[in-house]
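Supplementary Methods S3. Input chains for the assembly prediction are listed below.
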Amino acid sequence: MKKLNEQLQKVEAALLAAHRREDEAQISQEWRAEVMSHIRRLRPVRGVIEEAAIFDRLLWRFAAAAGLTAAAVCLYFLFTGSGLETDIEKLKFIWDPIGFLAAQALIS
Amino acid sequence: MISKANDRDMGQDISQLQDIEIIRRVLDGNLDAFEVIMDRYQDQVFRLVSKHIPHDRRKEVAHDAFVQAYTSLSTYTATGPLAHWLSKIAVRCCYDYWRESHRSAEMTISSITEDHQTWLDHVLLEESSDAHKRETAHREAKEILDWALARLTPEERMVVTLTHLDGFPVKEAADLLGWSVIKVKVQAHRSRQKLRQLISTLLPDEGKRHEKAK
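Predicted structure tokens for the full assembly:
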């Protein structure tokens, strides 16, 4: 069985190399002229490249990422117990500590 | 005179333009611009087709691929390179070719001759990898591969050629064929097993080899 597998691998490798060996491309001017004359006989193709389609695809690609980020942020705040109001208060203290403390004293 | 000079100037410009600009010109009715696309990608398309289609039918399939590219040019959305879009069309043309031949039973299924068997014996006896590579230059190798591939369905043939023989990653093969990644994975595995089974039937069994040794 092991020997059979080895043999099989050998033959497979040789066949693979044979397949991957580059064949010479035999494209002639006549062939190209034939294709072009076929195309010229067809009804002209009209249209525009849809820029909107490109935008749509990009938009949807980023929409998924944006949605996931939003969900992750929500979950983070839900489980850490942190809220936007607390963060704003913290920022107030950093920017104006004296005013913040005075306001706290006045409230209490 | 002036218009001829303008045409020539325009022609020079066209060949230096980016693909997307050339496509715009074709879609505006300038058919000559399509020749620039052919000029840029004919080698690539022909090489791809050559890997899948018998020698005598390659030109025909490559021809179909370019005609199909032209007729569906308005569906090109420029979200990927034109080369990739053309490869997809070429692969699908090859697939159509095999489906058509399978349906019409037009395929000539070759048989294994003594020459092929001799080639196999040579490969099995060779130890050196250089000699091994040299052996692949033989026409017989390709004929044996064709013999085995002809016994697969068009689906199996396309998927095993793309993933196993051409070495495309599963995702890329799926994209080229327009199949799902799962379908390609399953089909590639099954087809490869089938191909191995077919090739193994050609290997001389232990008994025969003992007789030869005596």
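Chain B touches chain A through 54 residues (CB under 8 Å). Chain B has twelve helices and no strands.
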